Amino acid sequence: MAGYRGVLFDLDGTLLDTALDFYWVADRMRADRGLEPVERDGFRQCVSDGARAMVCNAFSLSPNSPEVEPLLEEFLALYAQHMMVKSRLFEGMDLLLDWLDEQQIKWGIVTNKPERFSRAIIDQLGLSARCSSLICPEQVRNRKPDPESLLLACQEIGCPPEATLYIGDHQRDIEAGQRAGMITIACLYGYIHSQDDPRQWNSDHLVRDTRKLDTLLKCLYSDIDTAAY
């Protein structure tokens, strides 16, 4: 087996497909104001940017607009009631996590999603006992792209950064992984802005779907040539 001993995942857009529940929240808020449902493609691209970005997209506001804060509070309150209605692990991720457990490869999650949502989601998915580390913004002083959260997760799973992979769907994920000294994998199936070019993020690997991710990880941990990925 290769020298890699740990895997860390981003949450939204990498491990978990949460967009449908966020659509519901935005649509509910817009309907209450007599507006049509949110435009799906553009809104989906904002999911990995967080709740503030989704609110700004849903109501065509700038981040500094005074209207954002009350809308954000409403958005988060509604999401707390509807955060695991349609959200699911991306297809095939359950099998990949099973394989990691079978191989005794420690894995964890590093996310900018608040802990009150992230922990509840992991509990509802039945992953709490299997996830060796869950790092949210509340545990660190600096969010991604700062590497602090990734380095803390490496400590918790007991793997040095150079023996750990980080998988994400946003440029800040790749930057954080690079700054932590980790091998990085960019997920093209995630919530990526149409104007972004993930090839410019300089990740070590790019994967287009979860099947490719599964194959890549098995190759990396078996020390098989990964030039095709």
List strands and helices in order, with pairings.
Blueprint: E1 6-9, E2 16-17, H1 19-31, H2 40-44, H3 51-58, H4 68-81, E3 88-89, H5 93-102, E4 106-110, H6 115-124, E5 134-135, H7 148-157, E6 164-168, H8 171-180, E7 183-187, E8 205-207, H9 210-222
Parallel strand pairs: 1-4, 1-6, 4-5, 6-7, 7-8
Antiparallel strand pairs: 2-3
Number of strands: 8
SSE arrangement, N to C: EEHHHHEHEHEHEHEEH
**Domain module count:** 2
The SS-based structural class is alpha/beta
Strand order of the largest sheet: 5-4-1-6-7-8
- Judging by the overall fold, what is the CATH architecture of the largest domain? 3-Layer(aba) Sandwich
By CATH, the superfamily of the largest domain comes out as HAD superfamily/HAD-like
Provide a count of the helices.
9
Question: Percent helix among the residues?
Answer: 40-55%
CATH topology of the largest domain: Rossmann fold
The first-level CATH class name of the largest domain: Alpha Beta
* Fraction of residues in β-strands: 5-15%
Quote the average pLDDT.
95
Question: What can be said about the biggest beta sheet?
Answer: 6 strands, parallel
Intertermini distance: 18 Å
Uncertain ranges: none
What global shape is seen? globular
